[in-house]
Fold:
Amino acid sequence: MIDRVDRDTVRSAIALASRAPSVHNSQPWRWRVGPGVVTLHADRERWLPVADADGRDLALSCGAALHHLRVALAAAGVVATVRRLPRPGDPDHVATVALRAGSPAETDLALAGAIGTRRTDRRPFGTWDVPRGFVDELVDRAAGQGAVLRPVRDERRRLEVLHAIAEAAAVQEATAGYRTETRLWTGSGAAVDGVPAANLLRDPAAGPRAARHFGTGTLDAGPGLPAADADGAMLLVLGTASDDPLSRLRAGEATSAVLLHATVLGLATCPLSQPLEVGSTRAVLQSRVLDGTLSPQLVLRVGWAPAGPPPPPTPRRPVDETITA
Ligand SMILES: Cc1cc2nc3c(=O)[nH]c(=O)nc-3n(C[C@H](O)[C@H](O)[C@H](O)COP(=O)(O)O)c2cc1C
Structure:
């Protein structure tokens, strides 16, 4: 009931949910708030038609926002009951979340705390291993949202992922409109969306091999780092049993769960969607990295941040502009 879960609490939870990662920081979502209910809708006007032709990144971004909302509500002591894609005739109606008063658990508070400190970090990471126990926890977090997270452990598979990223980049660079679209969403310091220059490397050549090329920014790679291809990040591939809209939404929720938990563990993270955006490289991930067992949805770089200040928070649209009654 809205009189038991007051409007300010719901608005604050939506403000935290808006901190979710999204492709190019496009924030492709809108919220509606009613008595005892919040609904989440995909905003097609914020879709990237060239890079994200099949709408996967849009669906994952909405899934990440949905999971962030669930975390924020749980931390505020609100019990949320979620119906995903509740209206078959309206695929952009992503979820209906029914709200009821409850009480927060300590783990909810820790996860919600990570919303404010999580960053997409495009710097090369340190070369210390991510402990196996930490990786197992991330795998569990993905499973808890109905997705499978596969650490890329052997060198052959790692090279397959890196080649797929390079190949996808080459295909996209040759695709009409890709550069213009990327430019539209990057580099500005004053915007309320897009990827700011402050979050892109001053010297992109010093970045990880797996990085998407957005352009030149103002972020330092970190003091005393080795050559770019010595990036110590671990790569993990997130997959789902099938590739329908519900699977993509679940994959987005799993992305959020993994990134927030990694943040709690002190790990740096960066999602990489480029090899999923091109059909031929998505097929390579499916057959040669996941052995044909899963539909790949996203690649994650995870590891230890270099010394030096972390990337600053990226901007978000004013929350009231994203809410309709
Ligand atoms: C579905 C999805 C795909 C993304 N793809 C990439 C990518 O290919 N390369 C990259 O550097 N960041 C990627 N990101 C990260 C976004 O650019 C980032 O979330 C956004 O700029 C907001 O910044 P923040 O994560 O620091 O809050 C992706 C995020 C999502 C949710």
